Amino acid sequence: MFKTVAEAPNWLKTTDVQDIYSVSGCISEDFDDWVDEWKHNGYWLFDSPEIMESIANSKNISLKDMKLFFYRASEIEWDVDNAKWEKYQPEDSFNTNIKLPIASKLEGFDIVSFSQHNSCECSPLSCNSLAEEIKVNNHCLLPSYEKAKALIELGELKGCEPGPYRIFEVYSVIHST
């Protein structure tokens, strides 16, 4: 996803966070209102940067000042109502053929809500200010998958956003083609 990376908002009361690399588009916005183009994959993200570049070109959107991210999601999601992990699959009505970046840098781990079970919604670390209480890196991300999973299982996200919750590895793309 191409995003406009936002600096830490003033209302987020922590000195640890410089900017927001969350999967959610609530603070660091996605490159466009892309859903109406119906070119996303079954995870409601994009298979390659070229697809986003095509959309941007057709809408005269400059990607020049945006940062390109690659996300890798866990194959399980936390069912808030039943307090257990369950498998999920990409939506099969969309083709999913992800092109891996040639070079990327792991920036950290994010937790994202999926109450509609399709597109990314909120990242409680940034959207719900949990970064004020939970140790995160300068991009408002967690240091490990294990830390993210433990926070969910211990109920640290209770009352933040309707679930289920999924854990994502967040990579900045260094070279994509």
Question: Can you give keywords for this protein?
Answer:
7 strands; 3 helices; 177 residues; globular; 25% strand; five-stranded antiparallel beta sheet; alpha+beta; 13% helix; two-stranded antiparallel ribbon
- Number of beta strands: 7
Structural class: alpha+beta
Radius of gyration over all CA atoms, rounded? 16 Å
Order of helices and strands: EEEHEEEHHE
Mean pLDDT: 93
Strand content: 25-35%
Number of helices: 3
Helicity level: 10-25%
Query: Tell me about the biggest sheet?
Result: 5 strands, antiparallel
End-to-end distance:
15 Å
Shape: globular
In total, the number of domains comes to 1
Low-confidence stretches: none
Briefly say what this structure is.
This protein has 177 residues and is an alpha+beta fold. The chain has helices at residues 49-58, 124-127, 145-153, and strands spanning 2-3, 6-7, 19-20, 67-79, 84-87, 103-113, 165-175. It has one domain.
Give a written overview of the molecule.
It is a single chain. It contains three helices and seven strands, in the order βββαβββααβ. It has 177 residues and is α+β, with helices and mostly antiparallel strands. It has one domain. The strands form two sheets. Strands 1, 4, 5, 6 and 7 form a five-stranded antiparallel beta sheet that branches. The model has no long low-confidence stretch (mean pLDDT 93).
Walk me through the topology.
Elements: E1 2-3, E2 6-7, E3 19-20, H1 49-58, E4 67-79, E5 84-87, E6 103-113, H2 124-127, H3 145-153, E7 165-175
Antiparallel strand pairs: 1-4, 2-3, 4-5, 4-7, 6-7
